[in-house]
Amino acid sequence: MSVVPVNKLSKNEISKPEPCASSIPAAKLVFTTFDVPNAIATDAQGINDQGDIIGYFRDSTGDRGFLKQGSSFTTFDYPN
Questions:
Q1: Which residues contact 67 (CB under 8 A, 6 or more apart)?
Q2: Burial of residue 64, with CB atoms counted within 10 A of its CB: 0-12 exposed, 13-18 middle, 19 or more buried
Q3: Which residues contact 31 (CB under 8 A, 6 or more apart)?
Q4: Tens-binned pLDDT, residue by residue, of the chain (80 aa)
Q5: Where do the DSSP E strands lie in 1-80?
Q6: How far, CA to CA in Å, does 20 sit from each of 17, 27, 46, 74?
Q7: CA-CA distance, 42 to 2, in Å (whole number)?
Q8: Is 40 left (phi over 0), alpha (psi -120 to 50) or beta?
């Protein structure tokens, strides 16, 4: 929806409405599940335009960070 203050329109000008949700094509989403190898729990926190996923996981030593690029994982420890 767009809102235009009345005082910004001239007498002959009409505000054009935005398309309603039903006229916008639905996004095609693909969901993939994964676990960091040897993890007790995995929690993804973000994804970039290239599809790289960052997050943290828990293993027998505690909480650690991961970066998933394609099918490969890089794990790292972070302070505190």
A1: 52, 53, 54, 73, 74, 76
A2: middle
A3: none
A4: 445 455 555 556 666 666 666 677 788 888 888 889 899 999 999 999 999 999 999 999 999 999 999 989 999 997 76
A5: 41-47, 53-59, 62-69, 72-76
A6: 8, 15, 30, 43
A7: 41
A8: alpha
Quickly count: other Cβ atoms within 10 Å of residue 68's Cβ.
Answer: 19
| Beta pairing partners, 57 | 42, 64
- Exposure string of 36-63, with b = 16+ CB inside 10 Å and e = fewer, is beebeebeeeeeeeeeebeebbeeeeee
| Residue in the block written with tokens 């929806």 | 1
